[in-house]
Amino acid sequence: MTYQLLLPQIFLFLWAILIFIIDFVRKEKKHNLAYVALLGIVITTVLVLTSQKGELFGGMFQADSFSAYFNLIFLLTGFLTIASSVEFTQRLPSNKGEYFGLILLSMVGMMFLASAGDLLTLYVSLELTTIPLFVLASYRKDEFKSTEAGLKYLILGGISSALLLFGISLIYGLTGTTFLTEVRTTLIVRFLSTGNVGPALVLGFIFMIAGFGFKLALVPFHMWVPDVYEGAPTPITAFLSVASKATGIAAFLRVFFHAFLIFQVDWVMLMAVLAALAMIIGNIIALLQTNIKRMLAYSSIAQIGYILLGVVAASSRGVSSVAFYTFVYLFANMGAFITAIAFSHKTGSDEIKDYAGLSRRSPALAAMMAVFMLSLVGIPPLAGFMGKYYLFSAAIEQRYIWLVVIAILTSVISLYYYLNVVRQMYFQTSTEESPILMGAALKTALLICVIGVLLLGIYPNIFLNFANQAAMVFHY
Amino acid sequence: MDFPILTLMIFIPFLGMILILLLKREQESAARFLAALFSFIPLVLSFILLARYDGSTSGLQFVEKYEWIPSLGITYFLGADGLSVPMLFLTALLCFVSVIYSFGDIKERVRQYFAFLLLLEVGMMGVFAALDFFLFYIFWEIVLVPMYFLIGIWGHGRKEYSAIKFFLYTLFGSLFMLVGILALYFTVEPHTLNMMVLIEKAPELARGFQLLAFVAFYIAFAVKVPIFPFHTWLPDAHVDAPTAVSVILAGILLKMGTYGFLRISYPMFPEGAIYFALPIGILALINIVYGALVCMAQKDLKKMIAYSSVSHMGYCMLGMAAITVTGISGCVFQMVSHGLITGALFLLVGVLYERAHTREISAFGGLWIKVPVYSGIMMLFCLGSLGLPGLSGFVSEFMVFVGAFPVFNVIVPLAVIGVVLTAAYFLRMIQAMFLGTFNTKWEGLTEISGREIFTVIPLAILMVGIGVYPSPLTNMIKATIENIVHLVTG
């Protein structure tokens, strides 16, 4: 049965429903459903790793090395998010179980999206991804900022979907199909017969880029990010900053590299400018932040700029470097957020200045946070360096020296604010001496991130091979 | 040669770092002992390296090469030649000396301190042994991290400012090198990061490319040396760093810059080296004279010695810019000599500061009467630094001038002014601090301790040794330098 290809998605979907049912029927709400959700993710990961390659529904659903790669990213991010939510959900007055069900549902959407071979599949799975996130962002209903975050995210998410849909409709109008492969061939035939593709296609590109731009938090579509990141519960912020962005990247690559790569002259320059803007604006505004979540929000805007270097390269090395960096970004960024979660559980604060003296209070936690920060800067031998090296190499191979120069200058800027956290932890002292205690789940999550950051920096071969295979899905 | 001596020299300090981090916070003396042990082993190994090194050829020795990240063409490739062997030895020696010196003046967060110091040694050793560009860059950058912490935590004065300034400046420079590395990687066919292959392929590179790449690498190395106008991080970092770290900064870190020029820029981009010879020569002159003039104006002893590094590294650059065998030999000789002398001077400043808690030159006077041993050692190194014949500083400066004069017959005579100025500020300092009437405020000043003498003695022996009898060192570097000059001038 070829429907086996859908097994990971179907399984995770049923598991999410199972969690809703358990939460609904059980009387004693003592036990945390987080571990049930984690078990589901582990089983799904096994299913993804053992799944076959192929396509379903005439190509609407593609199960290939690209989807497998991004599925692993989504699953790992989900795993880390849920592991770091254990304590957060225990403090919730109600709806403890639904929280995990919603995360799993969002992940199902992401996993469908990574396999999308059709514009409508893509659109529907993107909606499935984001709608649970609207709810999750406003999960702390008693807090003004959380509610604000949910509402902002909802409104801007709606606008971005509308833009994307309009872009899709333009493409459909031009080609009469939503299958990416057919879109590609129809456009080529038209281009060969008439010599140009007309302004409508470029307009379609622009609307789609704007639509994806909201998901990716590209400048100038980034205004929602700081408020939503600050207001949402921190585990959800972490999930948004990694999984949601990875979704945007996967979607963008699927559409633009599958269908529009031949017309790259019409959109690559736009992406290059957006990359430069993201790196410059993200890094400069991050300098001014005093709240760790807002700082990481702007840093994530800047990080997307670096990822776009690989997109702009529009080559197999480029896609491979984007895929690789997504993993790199996952470990370092999740690690930073998990540290922030652990810290705020104990202290109730997200202010960077309150990290003062952390190296005395909790040497291990401080050391790990320092590793994450240095990895985000791109200091060897950590993963961030390996990732940036790969991205830069892809851009330089295609002679985008100017873009790489912007990238390195902004990296130097980023050093300042990332190290500001390190400075607080190591150079400042505080009267507070009590260590930051963490639960087992949180510790495990943190450990996975540190190992990931070190492994991808020192011996990345396995991940590089996966990323290379994922990149081979497209024809360059 | 199956014994992986270079790998051991690099990673034994790393092992020491791990062991120290496994200790408990209270086990301070254990941390000191482990740090001493794990910096002593590389020193022993470096003696083996010196003994086994065959100076008659310019080829690589002690080569180790393994696949590392094949999909990106990255290998683990180590080797040593006449350029790296003296630097590896200097690194091992100064690190060991720094560790021993730090027993006295580091009393807080001892475990962390020695862990960072050993990590620093890992990075520096790696820089001087790595021959794969990626590996080289990794070690180059690793150095920044422990240095940032060492200055920021255990430093004095505006330590946080100095620490971040150091990090920002050098990262700025090295990222240009990264772009240069990648551009080079994609220009050469087949793509490679192997420095030796890249040097062989250098004649195939277009002239325009060579000039651009030379500039990119120049920025990276010039920040490190430092060459005017990139030098402003140096006085801040040197002055605010704890004593042992100043020793390593001046003694080894600056040499990473000149080493980079000789290992990478000159052989790989000979067109650039020739085209920019005059500007580099002029900037070297600025370093020499400007550095010396600024020294004249200093009231703080440590700051004066910090600026004297700017001046002395100018000699290195002058000798290098000339691209003659004598000039570049003088440059390498100066790298070693400056490492020994300035390292010792920083140690001695530390000795005084620990006792007097001030570094103001004018606050002292007639110290010779009270602390004759200390004063004697200090004066010996000052004389070495100002280039007294018979000490190593003289040999290197002499070689630089002789080597550079045929090429820069205007710059060299002007640079000699720097020598006069150097003599002036050192003599003025000696006069103010050690001679004249004794300032009774320092009645309670104690003499330099046995441990402190132990740290400077090896440096003094070497300074006098290669000053009187330079040929062991010159023979060691000769073949390699002849090869470099041959590669550049063809």
Shape assignment of chain B? globular
| Structural class by secondary-structure content of chain A | mainly alpha
Could you name the ranges of chain B where pLDDT drops below 50 across 5 or more consecutive residues? none
User: What number of domains of chain B?
Assistant: 2
Major sheet of chain B: 2 strands, antiparallel
What is the N-to-C succession of helices and strands of chain B?
HHEEHHHHHHHHHHHHHHHHHHH
What proportion of the residues of chain A form beta strands (DSSP E)?
under 5%
Strand adjacency order, main sheet of chain A: 1-2
Largest interface: A-B, 32 and 32 residues
Provide a count of the helices of chain B.
21
Distance between the termini of chain B: 32 Å
Helix content of chain B: over 70%
Tally the helices of chain A: what do you get?
20
Radius of gyration of chain B: 21 Å
Mean pLDDT of chain A: 90
Number of strands of chain B: 2
Helix content of chain A: over 70%
Taking pLDDT < 50 over at least 5 consecutive residues as the criterion, the unreliable ranges of chain A are none
Q: What string gives the helices and strands of chain A in order? A: HHEEHHHHHHHHHHHHHHHHHH
